[in-house]
Amino acid sequence: MGKFLKPGRLVVLLAGRQAGKKAILIKANEESTKDAKFPNGLVVGIQRYPRKVTKRMGQKQIRKRTTLKVFIKQLNLNHIMPTRYRLEESTLKEVRDRIERVKEAELKNVEKRKELRKNLRKYLAEKYRTLPAGSLADKKAQSRFLFSKLRF
Amino acid sequence: MVKNVAQESVNQKLQLVVRSGKITMGYKQTLKAIRNGTAKLVFISNNCPTIRKTQIEYYAMLAQITIVLYQGNNVDLGTGVQKESLFFFD
């Protein structure tokens, strides 16, 4: 009835090197595209999660421990497990803007991809640091789900 | 939403749908259909492995479609649809 694989949906990857990592679904192509002959989706995921931080740590250490590493991947929708969490509009818009600034053809270019990853990494790290305190049920803090490591 | 329905009426409805409607059978295809938004109702047999069952239920919850937990195993479901294969279907 309802299409739920919309941009902004938080997903968990089920296969590949990044299996078990959480990601943001940026774009879902139900029909195959030219280079991906299967229903695929573009995701931006977290490869290395930010570490735990305690009260005793100084600012510099906190800053180091709250960095994260990001990956961009196009993968089969079969290998994505959607969750009920969604990224907030504002964050999603920013992420999509940054990705759209790099044209499709350029995404294949390793250098450009690296730059984009760095770009997203900085942005998402800032978002993590300024995350409002709140439970996952709170709509504004659903991205908290994205930054917490799935333990298995 | 998960419904527990009386077997008789379900079988009748199943026959009707098979004749006049569109069915996809099988785990992979049902997930695809749910993702697409084309699925409206999903039947799960009672001997479906729990993980799979929960996964389908979760997908259906996200898509806001109904699930029917069929009171029989996959062979019964197959008989209900008058096909000989073993499957889960929607």
Automatic annotation (TrEMBL), chain A:
GO biological process entries: translation
Keywords: Coiled coil, Ribonucleoprotein, Ribosomal protein
Keyword Transferase part of the UniProt annotation: no
Any coiled-coil regions, as ranges: 85-122
GO molecular function: structural constituent of ribosome
Keyword Magnesium listed: no
GO CC, one annotated term: cytosolic large ribosomal subunit
UniProt xrefs under InterPro entries: Ribosomal_eL27 (IPR001141), Ribosomal_eL27_KOW (IPR041991), Ribosomal_eL27_sf (IPR038655), Translation_prot_SH3-like_sf (IPR008991)
Any one Pfam family match given in the protein's UniProt record, by short name: Ribosomal_L27e
SUPFAM superfamilies, sorted: Translation proteins SH3-like domain
Domain of life: Eukaryota
Family the entry assigns: Belongs to the eukaryotic ribosomal protein eL27 family.
Name recorded for this polypeptide: 60S ribosomal protein L27
Native organism taxonomy: Eukaryota, Sar, Alveolata, Ciliophora, Intramacronucleata
Automatic annotation (TrEMBL), chain B:
A GO molecular-function annotation: structural constituent of ribosome
InterPro entries: Ribosomal_eL30-like (IPR039109), Ribosomal_eL30-like_sf (IPR029064), Ribosomal_eL8/eL30/eS12/Gad45 (IPR004038)
Organism superkingdom: Eukaryota
Any single Pfam family the record assigns to this protein: Ribosomal_L7Ae
Source organism of the structure: Paramecium tetraurelia
Transmembrane segments: none
One cellular-component annotation, GO: cytosolic large ribosomal subunit
Entry keyword set: Ribonucleoprotein, Ribosomal protein
Domain annotation Ribosomal protein eL8/eL30/eS12/Gadd45: ranges: 9-84
Stated family: Belongs to the eukaryotic ribosomal protein eL30 family.
Protein name as catalogued: Ribosomal protein eL8/eL30/eS12/Gadd45 domain-containing protein
